[in-house]
Amino acid sequence: SYELTQPPSVSVSPGQTARITCSGDALPKKYAYWYQQKSGQAPVLVIYEDTKRPSGIPERISGSSSGTMATLTISGAQVEDEGDYYCYSTDSSGHHWVFGGGTKLTVL
Amino acid sequence: EVQLVESGGGLVQPGGSLRLSCAASGFTFSNFWMCWLRQAPGRGPEWVANIKEDGSETYYVDSVKGRFTISRDNAKNSLFLQMDSLRAEDTAVYYCAKDGAWGQGTLVTVSS
């Protein structure tokens, strides 16, 4: 079955840039979506269709995709950005969706 | 504003059944694919199933294929998930979702 691979953890100091990667064979042709989940809360969409930001999501959060890798970038990371981040996409058929394993972002 | 409200969760014994419902509002329900997602305690979210706008196509994650059935009633703006032969590993909060919008979730606990 299709898999999306993320690093288990990323750690940065406040104000630094955090980059979280997601690799998958179908990503050259399929969009990536990114969710942020804070402790005890439901996931929140922060990036859709590789690069688009829903309303209310700060501009310091951005997305990009190249080849088999999608990247979530948080510029000037803040303590409030801590949480788990999941990429989400579909296999080459477009019908079976999968989440990446998640990346725990620590800002301290 | 998109609103998705799930119901039907609860405690069920292994091998039992539950039917989840999702009431949708704030958008033209019949124009969108819909899906069910779940998140087990302490784990990441998982896509469970999705259904085409008119219900003519459905897809499932391998672990629920043959046990779960997704369906919809466009006249009532409702999405359903019939869950049969439930297992302990199906214990999770189940979410109804449209694109990036999720409901608040309903907890399903499978335990004897």
Can you give keywords for this protein?
heterodimer; A: 108 residues; mainly beta; 3-stranded antiparallel beta sheet; B: 112 residues; 4-stranded antiparallel beta sheet; 11 strands; 0% helix
Condensed summary:
The complex is a heterodimer of chains A (108) and B (112). By secondary structure, chain A is mostly beta strands. Helix content of chain A is 0%, strand content 44%.
End-to-end gap of chain B? 40 Å
Write down the overall geometry of chain A: globular
Rg measurement of chain A, Å: 13 Å
Helicity level of chain A, as a percent range?
A: under 10%
End-to-end separation of chain A: 36 Å
Q: Please count the helical segments of chain B.
A: 0
> Globular, elongated, flat, extended or rod-shaped: what is the shape of chain B?
globular
Largest sheet of chain B: 7 strands, mixed
Backbone structural class of chain B: mainly beta
Measured by residues with Cβ under 8 Å of the partner chain's Cβ, the largest interface is: A-B, 20 and 18 residues
Q: What order do the SSEs of chain B take from the amino end to the carboxyl end, as H and E?
A: EEEEEEEEEEE
Return Rg of chain B in Å: 13 Å
Low-confidence stretches of chain A: none
The chain-level mean pLDDT of chain A equals 96
Q: How many DSSP-defined strands of chain A?
A: 9
Q: What percentage of amino acids of chain A are in beta strands?
A: 35-45%
Spell out the blueprint of helices and strands.
The complex is a heterodimer of chains A (108) and B (112).
Chain A: E1 9-12, E2 18-23, E3 33-37, E4 44-47, E5 61-66, E6 69-74, E7 83-90, E8 97-99, E9 103-107
Parallel strand pairs in A: 1-9
Antiparallel strand pairs in A: 2-6, 3-4, 3-7, 5-6, 7-8, 7-9
Chain B: E1 3-7, E2 10-12, E3 18-25, E4 34-39, E5 45-51, E6 58-60, E7 68-73, E8 78-83, E9 92-98, E10 101-102, E11 106-110
Parallel strand pairs in B: 2-11
Antiparallel strand pairs in B: 1-3, 3-8, 4-5, 4-9, 5-6, 7-8, 9-10, 9-11
